[in-house]
Amino acid sequence: MNPEMIMEMMDSEMAKEMAPKIMPKMMPLALEKFLDKIPENERKEFIAKIVDIIVSKNEKKEIFAEFCDMFETLLDIKGLSIHSRGGKGSTKEKISPMDLFLAGLCGCICIAVGNTLKENNIETKIKVDGAVEKSFEEGRIKKVILNIYLKIDNIENLNLNKEDLKKLVLNGSKKCLISNTLNCEIEKNIIFE
């Protein structure tokens, strides 16, 4: 089957009638079987498109969690349902509440730094990753470690040295509402690639 024929079939009345019946079974099977066959750079965009479609079709735009059992919850983020395991029951195969917290924090820092650099006419690729040091005994996060990666082409052409650029990035990161709300230690590392 060629792609044009498949696209044509998708617009048919038969597909519109059958899709609601077969998609709930077929889509997970297809993803399980073929997702790792998609080149990594295309896979990220593919997954982002799926998530965007799911969120855009949800009318309520709510964010909530339902308790399932022990350390497991069902999280709903604007229509995107996620089985989550947290606390001492968390596993790498499931998204945990801590993963979502870190993703939100990294996203917020990325936006704050990106806009600061853009305002200063500095074009760069920015990536932020994070980790936490937890204390189950104290029942809290003791420390958040954020790594802010910058890839700047022609860095030598900037009117700033690396130390001044680091200061600019750290000042920009202070615009993140999430990190400003935290009362634990936050370590921010600036890494030039």
Automatic annotation (TrEMBL):
InterPro entries found in the cross-reference section: KH_dom-like_a/b (IPR015946), OsmC/Ohr_fam (IPR003718), OsmC/Ohrsf (IPR036102)
Residues forming coiled coils: none
Domain of life of the source: Archaea
Pfam families: OsmC (PF02566)
Record's protein name: OsmC family protein
